[in-house]
Amino acid sequence: MRQWQGKGVLFDLDGTLVDTAGDLHAVLNQLLVQYQRPAVSLEQIIPIGSDGIYPLLDLAFEAPLSAENKQRLRAEFIAIYQQNPPRHSRLFSGIEEVLAAFNEHHIPWGIVTNKPTKLTLPLFAKYQVLKTAKTLVCGDTLGFKKPHPAPMHHARAALNIDQGNNILYVGDAKRDIDAGIRADMHTAIAAWGYIHATVNIQDWGAGHILRAPTELLQLTI
After folding, report:
1. pLDDT digits (tens, 9 = 90+) for 176-190
2. Are the C-beta atoms of residues 165 and 186 closer than 8 Å to each other?
């Protein structure tokens, strides 16, 4: 694998660092019980696990929802999520090893996610290694979310790394790669994440496609 000569690494969260599909599945089905609707399977959740709450609601409620109903259901989903600490989420295999190696080699790293802060912090409470991130940019940190490049620029400034193609951004969704490219960052696809089997990730234009987290060590150290 060709080594990337850079100064820092940024990650997406859901589907890249942490497998959160199990908790999203549990929360969504708890919400469906309240509305006497049939449960959805974990297999249905996984391909859209990185896409936020609204796609989960579209999947679960099937019929077109008004903007008002979507906002109400989103608020109810978040309330259930906050009442239930993450029990089913787990770090993807190899992630803890990679982050520990970055810390050991003084490679600054951080997280840029579209997940709201109040849903992100419980994961930090569960996994101590996430607390060693040099920056955390959530979906509500700024007025913009990925694929807009503003969160990426904000994270770059927090890492105190000059402008230029010297940061690697790793994510499992096209919007991650788009945001990284728009921010003039090097990009890598986390192919272990929530990517539907029918999606051709070759078309995303990323610099690298990584099949396992530990491939990052070959690329960066």
Report:
1. 999 999 999 999 999
2. yes
Has 162 been annotated as catalytic? Answer: no
Question: Which of 12, 172, 176, 178 is an active site residue?
Answer: 12
The whole-angstrom separation of Cα 135 and Cα 3 is 24
What are the extents of the domains in the chain? Answer: 8-19+89-220, 21-83
Q: Is 178 a catalytic residue?
A: no
The CATH code belonging to domain 21-83 is 1.10.150
For residues 93 and 202, what is the distance between their CA atoms, to the nearest angstrom? Answer: 24
- Residue from 14, 172, 176, 178 carrying the catalytic annotation: 14
C-alpha dihedral sign at 88, 107, 167, 220: negative
> What percentage of the chain exceeds 90 in pLDDT?
81
- Please, are residues 80 and 53 in contact by the beta-carbon 8 Å criterion? no
Query: 8-19+89-220 sits in which CATH class?
Result: alpha beta
